[in-house]
Structure prediction request, 1664 residues.
Amino acid sequence: MENPVVMGHKNIILISSLLLLFTFTSAFGSQDIAIRAGHILTISDNPIENGIVLIKDGKIEALGRNVVLPADVRLIDANDKFVMPGLIDSQSRLFVMDSELNESRTIAPELNILDAIDPFIKEYREVLAQGVTAVCVAPGSRGLIGGRSAVLKLNGSKNVDRMVLKADATLKAAVGISTSNASSSLARLEHYSSIREALIATKVYMQRKEKADRELAEYNRKKAEYEKKDSGKETEKKEKPKRPARFRSSPASDVLAQVLRKEIPLQIEAHRVVDILNALRLADEFGFSLILDKCTEGYLIADEIARRKVPVIIGPVSTSFVDMPRLEYRNHNMSNAAILSKRGVKAALGVSGRDGASSKFITLAAAMAAANGMDKSAALRAITLTPAEMLGVADRIGSLQVGKDADLVILNGHPLDIRTRVEMVMIEGKVVFERKSQQ
Amino acid sequence: MNPVRNSNRGKNKNIRQEPSISNGVKSKSYIAFVTVFSMAFVISVSVRAAPVRKKLAVKAGSIITITGADIKNGTILIEDGIIKAVGKKVEIPWDAFVIEAKDRVIMPGFVLAHTSSGLDRANENVPEVPFLSTFDSIDPISPYFEDSLRDGVVAMLVLPGNNTLLGGTGTVVKPHGLTVEAMLIKRYTGLKISLRPTGNTSRMGHMQRFRRYMSDLKDYLEEYEQRKADAKEEKKPFDEEIDPRKQPMLDLMNKKLTAFIYCDIAADVLKAIEIHEKYKLNTVLVLNPTCYKAAPLIAQKKLPVILHPQLIIWETNEETNEEEMKVIPMIFHKAGVKFAFQTDTSQYGRRYLWYQAATAVRHGMKREEALKSITLYPAQFIGVDDRLGSIQAGKEATLIFLTSDPLDAQAWVDKVMIAGEIVYEKEKDQRLKKLLEKPDEIQKPKDTD
Amino acid sequence: MKACVILLSFLLLMPASAKDEQSEVTAIKAGKIFTMSGSPITDGIILIKDGKITDIGTGIEIPEKANIIDAGQKVIMPGLVDASAVPPVRGDLNEQSDEITPTIRISSALDPQSKILKRVVQTGVTTLYISPGWRNVIAGLGTVIKPTGKTPKEMIIKEDAALTLVMSLDSTYGNQIPRSQPPRNFYFRRPTTRMAIIWMLRKSFFDAQKYAASKEKDDPDMQILASVVEDKIPVRLNVRRAINIRTALKLAEEYDFQLVLDECTEGYKVAEEIAQKQVPVVLGPFYYYPGSLSQHREGREVNWNNAGILTKAGVKVALTSGAQPQSIDLLTAAAFAVRHGMPRDKALKAITTTPAEILGVADKVGTLEKGKHADILILSGDPLKVTTRIEKVILNGKTVYKAE
Amino acid sequence: MVKAADAPQNLAIRAGRIWTVTDGVITDGVIIIKNGKIQAVRKNPDVPAGMKLLDFSDKDVMPGLIDAHCHLGLSLDIYSEIDETVLAVTPDMQILDAFNPLADDVKKALRSGVTTVLLAPGNKNPIAGQTAVVKLSGKKTKDWILKRSAGVKFSLRDDALMSDRRPTSRAGLLALIREELNNAKTHEQDKPDLRIEVLKSVVDANFPVYICAYTIDEIVSALTLVDEYDLNAVLIGAQQGDEIANMIAGQNIPVIYSPLLLFSRDKDLKRVVKMADGGIKIAFSSTAPRTALSDLRTSAITAVRYGLDTEAALKSLTINAAEILGVSKRVGSIQKGKDADLVILNGDPLQPTSSVEMVIINGTIVYQRQKI
Prediction:
């Protein structure tokens, strides 16, 4: 099957080069940059007081208390300020119009959120201005298997392929979502079983595919042999081998196969306890790598989740992020994140707001989690490194470490303080936001 | 779709494998090939061989040649419907019939590069029907064609509507003639691809559907080639036809057909470019007004564009909350994109190509450029620029006689000449009279009570 | 990027408007001025003080501290008047709960921040008449406004300008006839036919006359209808078919009220009669095709030259957008009216003075004269050329739009 | 959690910071509570004998939050018993008759530090019904019902338009309201009619009206009405009020601002700040249960994020609301003589990182946070 993303990459790389020029508010070529900061929150390690971050061609070259500065380096003075990695909203719907979030079909793993991305929408500027440098956008929760999600950078490019940090980050699924606000016990049953069916069907598909490949190989061998015989002094005529029927691959099954081969994690949205348990049961049965999404009532079965070492993306922390609380949020508890993380569950925080603009409140979400018992360092990690690890992009973003992308935020105070303002945002060493003085 | 008709199309190689049938002579011979349309042959020829004077000389007050400079008091010499010479001092042969048009402005007829009017229905409700052709759906007696001629349009590409993923192939016709065959200029030109999802599908589903179709097509071809190879190997004769329903998409990819890709929002343009580059197509973009945001990209890719009839839109500036007028043609013009105009009848003026051009000029577009985008450029986009779109020796004598400057609202199309034959005259236009003059006094009812 | 552009364009725009507001007097110089009150002035000057024209003509000397707008050889004309504009009101324009709702005032629902207003200004319209929708037989009271101001008070220049009646079939739309099932809501009601519409109009005005004569004044609906038959408020009557136009004229005679005909699609058929009764006409939206009129039953017989034929017969004609958001460009409308046979001077009047007179605000707007509102358009060329563009719109002496 | 049943005992609360709202912040102070009322607020930390001492030396105490517009305790499921839509005009309807003090969302509200609320009907009726001011806990009626009828709620929102009920249009909506008010004016006493009585007290006796208006045109129409009938009015919602702040301030009409939703665009979130700066008295509201209950404090916090002065924010949560609802004699600040409605937080009330530890109403502990 053809991979749209790879395809795109080859093609439109040219455009980006041109676009770069006017998408970045200010770009200074590949000059090295050094940020002298009062507090550096590396997230991965302990904070560094009065340290320096050195940036070379968009990567972090060095950081620490005593870094030797090269000549003609652009020095940014942030002595009294905080520097931290760019924030990540792992439950964003930025760049996607509501109408494009969901497909009418229920099991549609072959869908790709990248086809729904509209780089021309403007909300991202506000999100960027709050220090968010990357978002994970997944299809909505109407379809049982909605399609593949992607991690995007807010680098302002008008070319989707330049925004993509990771395509096929996860495959989005949802169980037990009530379409109306009526109770949905029947739907629940149906959801669980139809996802299960799809996965079983995929197993069969994989076997058929292997068989077909084997047969083809076998045939080719025989054929070669036959031809050799044919050409050489023929002794006894062998009958010609028959070509096996051609195997028709199915895009949908291929994606699910990747899931079963643990190449793509399955991100299952589940709110109520029973749904979460269903999700876990599926993971037990098929052994794919599971990410629990939303997990509203997770705090009631924290140990179950912890025992299985299943990572969780919690959101919304407060129902203030959704317009009108649906039935799923009935037992919503603001301590959910705190309880889960305290029980040793790897928990990321997402906004999962009603629309793209919500993502700008990711720090507020973290602060609320902290208010309700999560310790602040964990809360900060839950909106930077933890989601990066879950989504498989920790090698690029999520923390301030040598070798990682220079996606970082400069703030005039502690990130969780409401009075703190974002001073500057960088993506790959380019300044993409700078606070106007009068603000 | 109708299997019988398709199998015909399938068997008839002439239609498909004839390399771009573009100039008049060829097209005649090409039609002649088409045994199934022998009827068409007779008619189309009879139309061409109508009482056209062999030699004509048009003495014009002024001539807008489009490609060259305008000519005051010039002469156009025409022989067998083809322009032989044009200029100030062209000597008129003794046997030429002279048409006096001293008080007229003469220019090449307008060309409309994209329309879905004149069809009984513009869209099929099945998403993938590339094998359909508007040829089978054009209604010659539709008032739309009559009006087009009245408005000075001499050639139009009729394509399926914008609601079908792979809508079918188009037909270039002139708005004159009693049968489609008689109107025909060039058939099997352009294939309509619409990137706007319809029904309750999302853009994800829509694009996936397209990719699915292409991967199936790939499979089919591989299998086909395999069978061919096998036959060769077994020294068996191989007479299997390519499935006619798939042929148009194949012709698209080997550039026999031009892709007319409709984009609903700016983001669709990105996908259009993706497709254009992946399959190396000849592409023309058919754009909705809001697609202007992608103008720089389009300019960089040097893709031709057909603009939506609505040339001016308003947008709310988020910072100031003011309404800002966006003049679409100007945005593309400044970006350096080559485009053609479209028409509709939803409000004053938009029905006329000259008015669309005038609107662009009003907001600062160069007059010459604007005139090109209603004549030469559309002719290029639909591949008839070798016979239409400008007044040059060697091109077809398809001209319009205007009462004054084309961009003036007071100018009327006085005469239309197609291939040397006058096919429209205002003073003989009964319908126009009815539309402009007061009907005879209808008698008043006697006052009751 | 886009933001920058926007910012720039605003920086360009600001100073002009800012200055206008500060300085006492503004003086505009232009090569050609269509005053619409007399013959055009060449190389004229207009003086503006607090939103009004204080002087206009040639060789007027300009005070020291005046802020001068030099339009060079450009053309100046009065701001356009749309006698039937799209109301800047959210939601349904029709009060569907009853077919006779004289107390409905469109002015009470004005949205000062409406996008429509901001757009309409850019097309040169500086005065609008807006009315309730056309789904009631007696729809309510219309208002004359200017597209500026933060509150209705600041916008309105004539409240209760006219009472909207609807004789076209629009007033029957949505109504259902109670046949088998009992009426469930108020859509089961009269009128569903032409005769019922006219019956209801007659009935209302008959009652109104009685009410006007009687002593106690306690019915707000009747109050308004009475003031119509007492000739205090004119009537705007929406009508399309020739036969209805005749009826309308008769009705106006019976109950003698001031009549203005709206839309009047088949007016050309009965031009003389309209002229004879001296009833002005506010032409509705223009349609190219018979039947392309949404109310196709009434739009079979369109004539492109409706305006021309009516004016020739001596009818006072105003060209309007016909309350159609699609067609808001009055200058183009005039250009095409001329194309189709309307005399040039009449066409220009039909988008300025004539509508102003019909709306009864001719003392304030419609021409460039001493004492009138300083609503001024600066054009790049002749108003009736479609290649001419609006360079600047001045409303109450302030620059409200400037082309980049 | 201490049962609400406990009799209001005499309490002394020692706190790290006391946010009195009306007279500044007292550090390391003590609040003395005698039978439900605040008897003293003082700096020196010694406590009279025989008093139960609650020691919050490292915590913050503030007055109970006041939610100036919500629909709490009216819902069996996610909101229902809010609108009586058969009739468009129901001024005689009293919202308190539908209130269930033991409802789930009431408890949630308590947990978020809300102690007093304005109960109001929904927005689906042009003239909806009578609002009420109540505390979210209390045994004796006089303890918890501050005002059985606090005023009449009007709605100029599009929600009040229905396709099968008069009015169907904005113009019709205003015509209807005018008609009703005119009737009330000209109504003779001899034929009694409850509906009209209520409206009469509105036009004649300054009985408050709570007018729900969000967009500019709605607000403008509201102001015109207030002017015309010279009403004693409060604006509810007033989202775009900043555009005409000077007019609202000019007629000095207080505003009960709509919740700051966490999916709004920046320019909308800045509006409330502009209004406060424009000299308009602002109170916050949650419109719960439509939006989450944490919204009340979150609204204030978000407003601060977008530039609202912290003191103003704090006032808007407490004393402003009390004054607007006309109950400032009893609640809204930590002052001698006022009801002992207190919230104890583990930090600055306007920091999202601080949360509610304990809630006290009339000197009774009604909520206490457990450890996780």
About this structure: The CA atoms of residues 77 and 104 of chain D lie 10 Å apart. Chain D has a mean pLDDT of 91. Chain D has two domains: 11-63+334-368, 65-325. The interface with chain B takes residues 265, 267 of chain D (CB under 8 Å).
